[in-house]
Design a protein that fits this description.
12 helices; 351 residues; six-stranded parallel sheet; globular; alpha/beta
Length: 351
């Protein structure tokens, strides 16, 4: 079986899930090519596990000061170029397209009659899971942005639906530094992050951000460009995580038993829905529209939760794909969730 795996590159969560799947497919000898879109080729990093991958422009979202900018999003995307990329992507040598919310390979598979399986957090939002900020536009995006024949969603809880657990790969915890906090707020300006953290000098904040740090950085704020190995090590050793409401970041925090403080990217349906789910589960504290020092002060004093042991979803999913019986994913989902010991407070949050 020859597979093309299309991955949305706009956020690091899709890439994290693809890395888990790449390792699982390598272990089982799958013949796979990777295809990425959503950012320029030079903006991808730590891509060795994907071999000779391909990159196209695809479609992406523009943000400004922690909010999706709809007008700029429409302006920055080259729609005619996207249509051309879809038309030019030849899938004649592939038996299957796997897709993580990547529109070029999804539409090419649809147009060329190649079977496609979607693996994404977005697909979980097709069920009646907790949601916020829903609209006809968001429903249209879920259905038509990257259409597939079979859509497999993943979430922190099954909520009574055939949904996969998260795809998580984390470093082993050797030592926890309770006064050390990991900060990943990529859509906030550097100065607003520094202003937010400056009053709390009893803690050390490890900030990962694409922009350079502001001048005169306080000693208790350590600024880093994004480095995946350093980020994973900081995640394992920290006492808590402050981030946007992306799915993979929260998944890693829950797996490691880290308390979580989130601020969603406003106007982003998926992140607003993630907030709704985390609040329902009592799994995170939330700042709804701005960075709120009073919420941070309360959260810093909160205890750490118990870690959640999610199974090796990638290995099980690859075996299921190779088996070829793709129309009945319920048994796969049930088997994986039977291996998860969810917190008692979560166990009635279904249906």
């Amino acid at each position: 079986m020859k597979i093309l795996y299309g991955v949305q590159g706009t956020g690091n969560g899709h890439l994290s899930r693809a890395r888990v799947m790449a390792k699982a497919m390598q272990k089982q000898g799958v013949d796979v090519d990777f295809f990425f879109s959503g950012r320029s080729a030079e903006q991808f990093f730590d891509m060795q596990c994907f071999g000779q991958y391909r990159v196209q422009s695809g479609l992406t979202f523009a943000t400004h000061n922690g909010r999706v900018n709809v007008a700029q999003t429409a302006k920055m995307n080259a729609w005619l170029g996207f249509v051309k990329d879809v038309k030019n992507l030849d899938l004649s040598g592939y038996d299957l397209v796997l897709n993580d919310y990547e529109p070029v390979s999804a539409w090419a598979a649809k147009n060329q009659g190649i079977p496609s399986i979607g693996i994404s957090h977005q697909a979980a939002l097709n069920f009646a899971v907790p949601k916020a900020g829903d609209s006809w536009f968001h429903e249209t995006m879920l259905n038509y942005f990257a259409p597939v024949d079979i859509a497999l969603g993943c979430h922190w809880h099954h909520f009574g639906f055939p949904i996969l657990p998260p795809f998580v790969e984390v470093d082993k915890i050797d030592k926890v530094l309770s006064s050390q906090v990991l900060v990943y707020l990529p859509f906030e300006s550097p100065q607003s992050i520094v202003d937010f953290l400056t009053p709390f000098s009893d803690y050390t904040f490890l900030v990962y951000h694409a922009s350079q740090n502001p001048q005169d950085l306080p000693l208790h704020i350590k600024w880093h460009g994004f480095d995946r190995d350093g980020f994973k090590a900081a995640m394992a050793s920290c006492g808590g995580v402050i981030g946007n409401a992306g799915f993979e970041l929260a998944s890693e925090a829950l797996t490691l038993g880290k308390k979580l403080l989130i601020k969603p990217l406003l106007g982003q349906f998926e992140q607003l829905s993630n907030v709704a789910a985390l609040e329902l589960l009592g799994a995170a504290e939330c700042m709804k529209s701005r960075l709120e020092p009073q919420v941070l002060r309360r959260w810093l004093k909160a205890p750490m939760p118990e870690p959640i042991g999610y199974p090796e979803v990638g290995d099980a999913l690859v075996s299921w794909i190779l088996n070829g019986d793709w129309r009945e994913p319920e048994a796969l989902c049930q088997s994986l969730w039977s291996q998860v010991n969810l917190p008692l407070s979560w166990q009635k949050k279904s249906g």
